Amino acid sequence: MYDWLVVQLGRLNVSLKLVVGFGILLFLTLLVLLSGLHSLDNQAGRGEQMATITELNDLSQQANLARLQFELGGDRSQAERVEQHSTKMLELIEQRLKGSDIDARQLEAARQAVSQYREAFSALTRAVDQRTQARSTLVGSAQSALQAFETLDKQLFDLLAEQPGDPQLLHSAQAVGQLHQQLLLVRYQVRGYVFEQSASAEQAAFAAFDQLRDTGTALQSQLPAIAADGLGAALKDLQNYRSGIEHFRDGVNATVQARQGLNGASEALLSASDRLYDDTLKRNEAETAAAKTRQILIAVLALAFGFLSGWAINRQIVRPLHEALELAERIAQGDLSQGLSRDLNVQRSDELGQLQRVMLRMRESLSQLLGHIGGSVSQLATAADELSAVTEQTRAGVNSQRVETEQVASAIHEMAATVQEVARNAEQASAAAQQADQQARQGDQVVQDAVNQIDRLAIEVDRSAEAMELLRKESEKIGSVLDVIKSVAEQTNLLALNAAIEAARAGEAGRGFAVVADEVRGLAQRTQSSTAEIEGLIAGLQRGAQEAVTRMDDSRRLTGSSVELTRRAGEALGVIARTVADIQGMNLQIASAAEEQSSVAEEINRSVVQVREIADQSAAASEQTASSSTELARLGNELQLQVGRFRL
After folding, report:
1. Separation CA 646–CA 639 (nearest Å)
2. How far is 585 from 350, CA to CA, in rounded Å?
3. Using a CB cutoff of 8 Å and minimum separation of 24, what contacts does 28-36 make?
4. Which of 66, 434, 580, 629 could form a cystine bridge with 81, CB 3.0-4.6 A?
5. pLDDT over threshold 70, residue 587
6. CA 584 to chain centre
7. CB-based burial label for 409 (10 Å; 0-12, 13-18, 19+)
8. What pLDDT, on the 0 to 100 scale, is given for residue 610?
9. Any stretches that span the bilayer, and where are they (predicted)?
10. 461 and 601 fall within a common domain
11. Would you say residue 559 has pLDDT above 70?
12. Is the pTM of this model over 0.70?
């Protein structure tokens, strides 16, 4: 069975093996995921159920609290809250829990408990209404009875007023007064019963009623007719009062029964919700345990299959790969014998079997190829040795020819270089002479322009000297005008001082004139100051003008000398230009002859260079051939050594 399974697995493709193995692992992983999601969904559902049950308990507690507040205060809004909470509890049971997996019997028990609670609360509401109505009746009946006894007292007192000495009337009045006191005691007992609502208070109240009724009935026959009728009316009102108490007692009993029903329904609802919560919690724990079991089982299956997959991959993939790798390693080391090929399982039909068969064919092909290469390499080595000897002789002759050609080429090249240098120097000298002639002509023209410019400059200098002389004379005139202004300012200052003195003598009458005199004096002083400053500026201007006139005279004399020197420089430049023109003509003749000689030398040099290049090419070819022959012989020997490494 095991061998058959190994053979069947060997026929499958490697990709199919991997796909099947990893597919099953992914399937198990998907099962784990789905199981976890299912458990999470169940947990979420259980959580919602437990939240609903908790909400049901909260609503039950809120309903009980509202019911107690309704019993204590009779607030109808609290009764409405009880109805709302009970309705909400029924909705939770019908809508959220009925469609779940909770036990239907427990749900029905909870629903019946809520229904019983609603019915009991309805009975409690009716009982409370009955008590309230009975209390209202009690108040009216008590007032009527009190008014009847007060009327009876008044009647008896009226009769006593008419018959003050009648002992029977006096005894009747005293007896009626005692009945009135007993009625007040009955009201006190009834009030205690209304507030306490206990059996003892009830017995005390009804005992007081019975005593009052018996006493009144016995007294009725002893009273006068008019008083007996009043007492009969009072006893009738008293009976109505007793009926109200009995009606209130029925309401109290109904309240007690309804409260007992509410307590029983509340306990039943609480018990049902507790059972629902416990059942949900148990099912949640059971579901958690089942989920853990499923997860562990699937994980164990995944681990087992993973182990089996690893073992199968090792047997079906890794082991054949190691065998193929060992064969490749032996081939790489040069072992082409058939020692390992006999151990290979080449009957496999998957990719690894194909790889092993290809490796075997490659080994056989390499063995045949290396056998052919070994024979060819021996022949190649012999031919390479012969070619190397012939190439060595050819290379020696070519090297001798190249040496002679290089000597001739070197001599021709030196001669051509000398001729080219002469021609280049002649051309440079001609160009320099031409440039010198051109610059000499330009210098002559520049000198002529400078002479003309200097002449114009001399004329302008003369004009400037005349203008500066005129400026000096005008500044002297300005100085005389400033002297006049200074004199006027001094006189104005003296006049202002005299006016100030006269104004001071005049006292108050001359105060305004004194102010004007002070202003005029200040203006005269500022005029003197400004005149002094202007005088200083004019003096500086006169000195500058005098110095400029002196400078102009010197410049005019230097300009005349410059004109004469410039004329002499122009004549010398003319002589230089003519000499340079003669040199340029001779340089042109030398350059022409040198160019012809250089052309001939270039032709000879090119021919020699071509011969040398051919010799170089021949020598290089001989060198390359010799090197190739040597390399070929070396490669042949090395190839023989390499082929000898393989064991065929």
Report:
1. 11
2. 100
3. 28/298, 28/301, 28/302, 28/305, 29/302, 31/298, 32/295, 32/298, 32/299, 32/302, 35/291, 35/294, 35/295, 35/298, 36/291, 36/295
4. 66
5. no
6. 85
7. buried
8. 73
9. 20-40, 296-313
10. yes
11. no
12. no
- Give 85's contacts (C-beta < 8 A, 6+ positions apart): 59, 60, 62, 63, 66
Residue 647's DSSP bridge partners are 335
**3-class DSSP assignment, residue 346:** coil
Can you name the residues that pair with 335 across neighbouring β-strands?
647
Q: How many CB atoms lie within 10 A of CB 247?
A: 17
* Reduced DSSP (H G I as helix, E B as strand, rest coil) percent helix, strand, coil of the chain, to 5: 95, 0, 5
Number of CB atoms found within 10 A of residue 640's CB: 15
Structure tokens at 385: 């040795």
CATH code, domain with 296: 1.20.58.920
The CB density around residue 513, as the number of other CB atoms within 10 Å, is 15
The predicted structure's pLDDT at residue 392: 67
> How does residue 642 score in pLDDT terms, banded at 50, 70 and 90?
low
Q: What is the pLDDT of residues 66-99, one digit of tens each?
A: 777 776 766 778 778 877 877 787 777 776 666 5
Is residue 496 scored above 80 in pLDDT? no
Domain count, the chain: 2
pLDDT at 481: 66
Residue 294: domain span: 13-308
Compute, in degrees rounded to 10, the torsion defined by CA atoms 57, 59, 61, 65. 180
Q: With contact defined as beta carbons under 8 Å apart, do 420 and 598 qualify?
A: yes
8 A C-beta contact, residue 44 and residue 293: no
Question: CATH number, domain at 443?
Answer: 1.10.287.950
166, pLDDT greater than 60: yes
Region of poorest pLDDT, from 34-38, 127-131, 342-346: 342-346
DSSP, residue by residue, 553-567: HHHHHHHHHHHHHHH
Q: What is the pLDDT of residues 341-375, one digit of tens each?
A: 555 555 566 666 667 677 777 767 766 776 677 66
For residue 318, what are its two tokens? 């890794």
Question: Do residues 122 and 67 lie in contact, with contact meaning Cβ atoms separated by under 8 Å?
Answer: no
- What distance in Å separates the CA atoms of residue 472 and residue 461, rounded to the nearest whole number? 16
Instruction: Show which of 274, 290, 308 is a domain's final residue.
Output: 308
Is a pLDDT exceeding 70 seen at residue 601? no
Residue 296 has pLDDT above 80, yes or no: yes
